Amino acid sequence: MAKCQRNDLASVILDRPSTSSGGNFRLWNSFSGSSLRRKLFDAVSCGGSSRYRHRHNDYDFATSARSVSENPKPKAQEKPRGVKSEKLSDLLSMADSPETVTDFETKKKEEALEELKRVAKELQAEDSEKRKAAASMVRLRCKEDSEARVTLAMLGAIPPLVGMLDSEDLESQIASLYALLNLGIGNDANKAAIVKAGGVHKMLKLIESPNAPNPSVSEAVVANFLGLSALDSNKPVIGSSGAIPFLVKNLQNSDHESSSPQSKQDAIRALYNLSIFSLNISFVLETNLVPFLLKSLGDMVVSERILAILSNVVSTPEGRKAISVVSDAFPILVDVLNWTDSPGCQEKASYILMVMAHKGYGDRQAMIEAGIVSSLLELTLLGSTLAQKRASRILECFRVDKGKQVTESFGGSLGGTAVSAPICGGSSSSSTNPIAGGSKECLEEAEDNMSEEKKAVKQLVQQSLQNNMRRIVKRANLPQDFVPSDHFKSLTTSSTSKSLPF
Fold first, then answer.
1. Rounded-to-integer distance, Cα 284 and Cα 238, Å
2. Phi and psi dihedrals of 2, rounded to 5?
């Protein structure tokens, strides 16, 4: 009785309308959070809402007093009220228990599995509308759910989706294409299964019809080729299927209505994936892709990807020949070396030139005629670490060529005898220390005996060095008097031909 009276009194105080905001604030502050919750539990365990007790206040108190005086209950009879309170508390705590959360998640997964089973079953239904709706559901569920991709593949969703590509209905074709695309996202097993089920050949059949393919279908096929070509085992199948000419055609298509910018980006990335497999290079060279890519260099958005494809093409002798026969190929690649704001393009262009310079003497001569030396010198100073190494290797190839030319020139004029340094001055001091003793006289004598033609060549070399260094100093924002002209003169007159930067 006392407990119920305290609970009723607390309820009356809590439910009592306040006459002023200050009084209400003081009443609420008189209870802490834990005591308030305990009083609420006790009030509920005694039964009745606060509104009901307000309405029958006098009756409740009179009945309670009479029942206690006439028929006092032992303390053991008050236990059920405590039990009710404990049960309520248990129910509230069970709502947040880990077991309840785990059961909820398990139930949710079971419902999702049943839904996927239903979708996989409807993919094989005779009704085309059901199949189309099921394909759309596969596309939706697999877009961001990796578990759904695995589950649907295990339920056999890939073969019926590939079979839907034979449908004459355009919406069914698009729904199945995007469902297959999302099934392969980040899942190599699904990518292999799609190719094994004949998906590549059926996709090509959609776009090889006599009529122009629908732009939406072409875009979806390109996106699928991009995803499927990321798997190494799929590269030879896709490359030999005839997909490369389609991708090249899609890339070169200037009609924005039939080929979106996103589709072009997907096509060039798919061509890069396929060009990684060396046997696909021959299929690439059957198209006019290489000249098109070289002419397209300049757009910073796609240039690095273009150079990445050319880096794969240059790995074969046929690919190097295809690049070298393109008019202005070397001037275009040399110009890329000067793109200081794109280190990635510089590195890839220097790789292409390095491979071609290492493999072909004729290509080295064409590079020199394109003015590569000054660009390489600048790259060795201002380029990235990788670009500097590649530029140095190209310069080394030129230096070796220059040394061979000098050796052959002297060997031919002297009948193949060995060439030794001239002995100037007969004193032993000059022999032991030619630089201190007679080097100046030797140089003056050699210059007097030099023909007019060799003097002209020497002057051109000096002017070339000066111009190259001035350009490098200007690009590096160094002081203009960083390298005086007198230093150039002393450098060129005291150096042999093998040390020239060619």
1. 12
2. -65, -40
The domain containing residue 171 runs over which residues?
108-197
300-303 long-range contacts, CB within 8 A, separation 24+: 300/342, 300/345, 302/265, 302/268, 303/336, 303/342, 303/345
pLDDT (tens digit per residue) in 136-178 = 999 999 999 999 999 999 999 999 999 999 999 999 999 999 9
Q: Per the domain annotation, does 177 fall within a domain?
A: yes
97 by Cβ neighbours in 10 Å (0-12 / 13-18 / 19+) ranks as exposed
Contacts 24+ apart (CB under 8 A), 376-380: 376/337, 377/468, 377/472, 377/501, 378/337, 378/338, 378/471, 378/472, 378/475, 379/337, 379/346, 379/350
**Domain end marker among 197, 213, 239:** 197
Does pTM surpass 0.70?
Answer: no
CA dihedral 410, 414, 420, 425 (to 10 degrees): -110
On whether the CB atoms of residues 390 and 358 are closer than 8 A, the answer is: no
Of 197, 212, 233, which marks where a domain is finished?
197
Copy the structure tokens of residue 219: 């875009």
Contact 321, 358 (CB under 8 A): no
Q: Give the contacts of 134 (CB within 8 A, at least 6 positions apart).
A: 119, 120, 122, 123, 125
